[in-house]
């Protein structure tokens, strides 16, 4: 590629970034005071920040513009921001704005200070069944809303569910870096997500980028089945010592309800999980079947009422334009970042 062509590409990237941004400033310090690091990806850092005029805290995803010279990374960021701008739900993180500087693109989101569901599971070991029902119903409300907009999250896991505040039982779904927009004539393709939670049809892209099985919303339903198993037992259903073994167990849906963890859990809960952890997505429970399941009747009714009340209380907000006991989750999932890096061809931003 000639120098002239490189310059054209760079200018094209800058133009696309300007189209994404709500504000273009020389330095983010003009608008926000950047604070401590909350998390890190391959090309990004999430920090706590304070808006200087509002004196309000936010979570800010800081993406290196240099990484966006790669078309795949830029498209992933465009999709993420496009999706975030569509969303307005009590159980999904809110986008405030996108700010562009010469070196970084900043995605400004509401700050959720209650910590990850992952850490609550570590602390509690597992959730009592009634608590699990209410928690899972909230998660379902967020996923049902996403699916109504034809959005597939593609990375549902405890680390991407945050509590609103310390001690709160209310949660919000975060991280739309892998999310995709599904349609019947354009299903999703490619390998992305986290090995412990990824659906078998997504794993079909593991060895070959050309011969995998196209997929859709059902991949999220599988992940919800894994999530419910973890919430109720404190263990992952799939426990391979090596990644290859883990992926084989997932691909074949080889798991058990170990007596030590499951003896006091209802048959209805186990039946729901078994309807979600089905290899064939056409045989897997749909969202409609999940929310109508008897185990969730009361919890879903309560969650729907809470969502309705929250929406009615919130004035309309102008959207920004355009064979043995399973090992505990702490042992099986604590190396999640490493596994994710090994099992994803999507841009980890």
UniProtKB/TrEMBL annotation:
It comes from Prymnesium polylepis. Residues 32-296 form the Protein kinase domain. Keywords: ATP-binding, Coiled coil, Kinase, Nucleotide-binding, Serine/threonine-protein kinase, Transferase. The lineage of its organism: Eukaryota, Haptista, Haptophyta, Prymnesiophyceae, Prymnesiales. The keyword Cell division does not apply. InterPro entries: Kinase-like_dom_sf (IPR011009), Prot_kinase_dom (IPR000719), Protein_kinase_ATP_BS (IPR017441), Ser/Thr_kinase_AS (IPR008271). This is Protein kinase domain-containing protein. Gene3D superfamilies: Phosphorylase Kinase, domain 1, Transferase(Phosphotransferase) domain 1. Belongs to the protein kinase superfamily. GO terms for molecular function: ATP binding; protein serine/threonine kinase activity. Residues 60-87 form a coiled coil. CDD domains: STKc_CAMK. ATP binds at residue 61.
């Amino acid at each position: 590629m000639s120098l002239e062509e490189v310059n054209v590409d760079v200018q094209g990237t800058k133009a696309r970034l300007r189209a994404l941004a709500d504000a273009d400033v020389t330095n983010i310090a003009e608008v926000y005071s950047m604070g401590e690091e909350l998390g890190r990806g391959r090309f990004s850092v999430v920090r706590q920040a304070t808006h200087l005029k509002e004196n309000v805290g936010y979570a800010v995803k800081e993406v290196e513009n240099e990484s966006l010279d790669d078309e795949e990374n830029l498209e992933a960021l465009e999709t993420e921001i496009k999706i975030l701008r569509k969303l307005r739900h009590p159980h999904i993180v809110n986008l405030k704005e996108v700010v562009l500087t010469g070196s970084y693109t900043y995605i400004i989101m509401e700050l959720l200070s209650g910590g990850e569901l992952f850490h609550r599971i570590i602390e509690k070991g597992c959730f009592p069944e009634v608590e699990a029902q209410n928690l899972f119903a909230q998660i379902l409300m967020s996923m049902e809303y996403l699916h109504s907009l034809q959005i597939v999250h593609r990375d549902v896991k405890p680390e991407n569910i945050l509590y609103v505040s310390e001690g709160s039982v209310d949660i919000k779904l975060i991280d739309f870096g892998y999310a995709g927009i599904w349609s019947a004539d354009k299903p999703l393709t490619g390998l992305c997500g986290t090995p412990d939670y990824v659906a078998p049809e997504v794993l079909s892209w593991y060895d070959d980028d050309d011969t995998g099985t196209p997929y859709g919303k059902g991949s999220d339903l599988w992940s919800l089945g894994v999530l419910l198993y973890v919430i109720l037992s404190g263990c992952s259903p799939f426990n391979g010592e090596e990644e290859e073994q883990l992926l084989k167990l997932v691909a074949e849906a080889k798991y058990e309800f170990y007596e030590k963890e499951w003896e006091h859990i209802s048959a209805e809960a186990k039946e729901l999980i078994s309807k979600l952890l089905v290899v064939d997505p056409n045989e897997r429970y749909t969202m409609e079947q999940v929310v109508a399941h008897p185990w969730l009747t009361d919890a879903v009714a309560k969650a729907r009422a809470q969502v309705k009340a929250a929406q009615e209380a919130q004035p309309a907000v102008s959207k920004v334009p355009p064979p043995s006991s399973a090992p505990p989750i702490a042992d099986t999932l604590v190396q999640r970042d490493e596994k994710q890096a090994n099992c994803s061809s999507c841009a980890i931003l």
